[in-house]
Amino acid sequence: MKISTAFRAWLNRVRRWCWHPWAYRMVFGERSGGPDAALRPFTRISPAACIEHREHLSLADHVYIGPFNFLEASGGIALGEGVQITSHCSLVTHSSHRALRLLGEGYTEWPAHLGSRPGWIAGPIHIGAYSFIGPHSLIEANTRLGKGTLVCAGSFVRGDYPDFAILEGRPARIVGDTRHADERLLQRYPDLAPLREAWAGPLSDAGSR
Predict the structure, then answer these.
(1) How confident is the model at residue 209 (pLDDT cuts 50, 70, 90)?
(2) Are 75 and 121 in contact (CB under 8 A)?
(3) Domain limits at 91?
(4) DSSP 207
C-alpha cells in the first residue's frame, strides 16, 4: 500500500513529538558521583549522552551536558560549577590503542601482577568552573582546564592549561584569553561586574597575557 507524502510528514511529526520528551528533553536535577552523591538541582544531563562509570563523574551545580556526548569516567571526571559540554564531545580517561598495537593478542592475557599494560595511558580529567567545551571536541586523560576556559569546536585537548584560556587546534594550543571578551561585555553591562567577579575574580590582570 502506497503511503501519501502528506501522511508520511504527519507520521514523522507525531514520531518526533512522542520520542523527543524521553530522548532529548533536558530536565533539571542530577546527583554527583563519588562518595557524597550530592544533589545538584540545576545540573542538566541529556538522556542522549552516553556516560560510562557514572560513579566516578563528579558534578558541581549548573553543569550542562548536552546530547550525543560520550563521557568515559573510569579514571575520574570532575566538572566545576557551570561547565557546559555542548554536543558530540568525548571525554575519555584512558587510552588503550598504543597497548593494543604493542601487545596484539597478548593484550587480553597481560598478567595483572605486571601492572599496567605497556603503552596504556590513564588519568583524570578536571574542567574548571564556567568553562565551555565546543562541539566535536576531544578531552583526553590527564587533562586539567582552568576556570573560564573556552575550547573551540573540533579541538583535541590534553595537558594542563591556565584559567581563562581559549584553546583551539589538534592538538589544542592557547590562542586567546576569555577575559578580554568579558571585559568588552562588562563595558555594556557594568552592573553585572559583581556577579562575574564572584566566581572569576577581578579583570585587572586580563592584559598580562
Answers:
(1) very low
(2) no
(3) 27-200
(4) G
Q: pTM for this one?
A: 0.89
- How far is the C-alpha of 103 from the C-alpha of 41, rounded, in Å? 46
Q: Which helix (H) or strand (E) holds 16?
A: helix 5-23
First vs last C-alpha separation in the chain = 68
Cell of 180: 578580554
CATH of the domain at 50: 2.160.10.10
pLDDT value at position 58? 96
Provide the domain count of the chain: 1
Taking the CB of residue 104, how many other CB atoms lie within 10 A of it?
9
Whether residue 1 has pLDDT greater than 60: no
Element holding 167 (H helix, E strand): strand 165-169
Q: How many CB atoms lie within 10 A of CB 36?
A: 9
Kindly give, in sequence order, each residue whose CB lies less than 8 Å from that of residue 173, ignoring residues fewer than 6 positions away: 167
pLDDT digits (tens, 9 = 90+) for 96-128: 999 999 999 999 999 989 988 999 999 999 999
Residue 20 lies in a domain: no
**4 falls in which pLDDT band (50, 70, 90)?**
confident
Three-class DSSP category at 179:
helix
